[in-house]
Structure formats: structure tokens, C-alpha cells
Amino acid sequence: MNIMHPVLRRIDLNLLPVFDAVYRSRSVRLAAEELAMSTSALSHALSRLRSALNDPLFYREGHRMCPSVYASQLAPSIASALKFLNQELTPPAAFVPAASTDCMQMRSPISPRSASFRR
């Protein structure tokens, strides 16, 4: 049984950080640097996302990339989803017993051994 939403099936989710970086930086070059991609690879990824969403998403105005109305509507949700996934998928910090302030209780049944504790 496939329960994935049909829209998600046609979009490469790896393209969402590309969208987010371009939206925040308003620059293909800066977004590419942030994501450690070439500008050519980022432009290609943005083109694939434009095709998948059937919207230009960004248009060039001078040296800046300005978001379309649809991109402006999507941006907060995409940023929120990426932030949530980043938080949830970050491994927990290693446990350091010496730095822990947690209280630990240890319990052990002593009734079978109570005879050895008699005075």
C-alpha cells in the first residue's frame, strides 16, 4: 500500500533545500556556495523543481532572484519542514556520565538476601 501523497511522489525532496537557499539568499551563486554545489548544478536543480511545480518560482531582477507569488507562499512551509527534519534527524548528543545532572535510581530485590543482612 502506497500512502505517500501524490504530489510528493513527483518531486525530488532533495530539491527543497535548493529552493530554501535561493529564497533566503536571493542569489543562485550564494545558494550554490551554501549548498556546496556548482552554480550550474544549482540552476539545473532549480529548473527541475520549476518543472515539477509548474511555476517559474524565481525570476531575475538585476542580479537578484525574486520569488514568484507561489514561491513566497511555499517558502515558510518549506523552511519549517526543513527545520523540523533537521532537528528530528540530528543524532542525540553522546551521554557523558560526569557531566550528567540526571538522577538515577537502581533497584534490586533484597528479600532473598535479607538473611545475610541480619545483625
From TrEMBL:
Q: Which SUPFAM superfamilies match?
A: Winged helix' DNA-binding domain (SSF46785)
What one GO molecular function would you report for this record? DNA binding
Q: Which UniProt keywords apply?
A: DNA-binding, Transcription, Transcription regulation
State whether keyword Transcription regulation applies: yes
- Supply the InterPro entries for this chain: LysR-type_TF, LysR_HTH_N, WH-like_DNA-bd_sf, WH_DNA-bd_sf
Q: One Pfam family name from the record?
A: HTH_1
Every copy of the HTH lysR-type domain together lies at 11-68
What family is reported?
Answer: Belongs to the LysR transcriptional regulatory family.
What name is this protein filed under? LysR family transcriptional regulator
Q: Which organism is it from?
A: Klebsiella pneumoniae
Q: Which gene encodes it?
A: leuO_1
